[in-house]
Amino acid sequence: MPTFVIVGASLAGAKAAETLRDEGFDGEIVLLGSELELPYERPDLSKGYLLGKVERDSLYVHPGGWYAEHHMDVRPGVTVTEIDRPGAAVVTSGPAGTQTLRYDKLLLTTGASPRRLQVPGADTDGILYLRTLADSQRLRSALQPGTRVVIAGAGWIGLETAAAARLAGCPVTVVEVRPGALHDQVGPELGAIFAGLHAEHGVVFRFGEAITEIRGSGDAASSGQASGLSGAEPRVASVVTSGGAELPADVVIAAIGAAPNDELAAPAGLEVDNGILTDAALRTSDPDILAAGDVANSFNPLLGRRVRVEHWANALHGGPAAARSMLGQPVSYDRVPYFYSDQYDLGMECSGLPAPGSYDQVVYRGDREGLQFIAFWLSGGAVVAGMNVNVWDVTADIQALIRSGRQADLSRLTDPAIPLADV
Description:
Blueprint: E1 3-7, H1 11-22, E2 28-33, H2 66-69, E3 72-76, E4 79-84, E5 89-94, E6 97-102, E7 105-108, E8 112-114, E9 127-128, H3 133-142, E10 149-152, H4 156-167, E11 172-176, H5 183-200, E12 204-207, E13 211-217, H6 220-227, E14 235-241, E15 246-248, E16 251-254, E17 258-260, E18 276-278, E19 289-291, E20 296-300, E21 305-307, H7 312-326, E22 338-343, E23 346-351, E24 361-367, E25 372-379, E26 382-389, H8 395-404, H9 410-413
Parallel strand pairs: 1-2, 1-7, 2-3, 7-19, 9-16, 10-11, 10-16, 11-12, 18-20
Antiparallel strand pairs: 4-5, 5-6, 8-17, 13-14, 14-15, 20-21, 22-23, 23-26, 24-25, 25-26
Helix pairs in contact: 1-7
């Protein structure tokens, strides 16, 4: 009986396991995860769960009993330390000690980890990262009214945690080395809109600056009381920026991006470059080993290039695609990248990857000032990305425009009276 091993008890891993059973695979499925949790979804860690609006149980991909009902061997708290390609096996470390587990197919869904601050004082108590359920719980406890919060990074995690902190009654300063918010994610045009939203809610931005030092205080009792945290001395007292400012802080949230957890791949001889390289079928340079989710840098036939996408939808759809590929089914993973965000009363969905340099024009339909609009990024007259802000049920039409690759009629594209399907 064949054994399919999935390394990474993540959304991508859990959905891959589900798809294997749905597609009729009756062999052994072993799902290995370093965390003690069953697979859970991460978006609400910086949104609803962080705000206290979403219950913990709703985060899990499947109820606890689901895995046994589907005859899956799930092993929380087990870390894979090595891939033995000649032996078609993985070496694990966990409660049962070191073990070797053979596989017929291996799927890597190990995700990504937050990039760490590399400045003097970076080990001071009170510096928080956000990736895991435990991280979100700790941050949720820290965001008490009056807690002074400094956030390193004005990307999606930085802005979502800024919104949560302001809603919790915390003064917030965001330090961002780029010239504006979301600069690398959506470019300066939309970044300015989001920065304006946060400024209206009292967030202070320091663009073009980086944190260069974190200074601690020996008064652990008073700082711990202010932040809702407790820990060893010293605690965060302030941060120093490259602009020469010293900002008082009880909590520092590091939101400076994520690095793929690809450390198993290179020693095993798999090709790695900003993640594990895969083809359009999510196969690595070893056809018996696949990768999906945040860790995979995959060729997307629609875009005509490799992309590593760290968003929820990529894990949701990439896991099932990899599972079908493991079963020998033809797979061409060419989805339009998609992500969403909720900040204050703003909800948005974005399709495509509108990074600076990928477009030459931005146009709008709807009420930009009232934050109820759709933005379109175009390159050579064709729509390459679209974001709907407080406008709903248009994602399919936006993605159809992107997939078409055709020249857009701007007068029709920007006219709210014309349905997008008719543009």
